[in-house]
Amino acid sequence: MIIVLKPGISRKQESFVLAEIRRRGYRPHVMRGVARIVIGAVGDERTHASLESLVTEFPAAVESVTPVQKRHQLVSREAHPASSTVTVRHQVIGGKKFQVMAGPCSVESEKQLLTTAVAVKAAGATILRGGAFKPRTSPYEFQGLGEKGLKLLAQARRETGLPVITELLSENHAGLVAEYTDIIQIGARNSQNFQLLIAAAKTGRPVLLKRGLSMKIEEWLLAGEYILAHNNSNLMFCERGIRTFETYTRNTLDLATIPIIKQESHCPIVIDPSQGAGRAELVAAMCKGAVAMGADALLIEVHPNPAKAWSDGAQQVSLERFATLMADLRPFIQAAGRE
Ligand code: PEP
Ligand code: MN
Question: What is the distance in A from the centroid of ligand 2 to the CA of 197?
Answer without folding.
Answer: 20
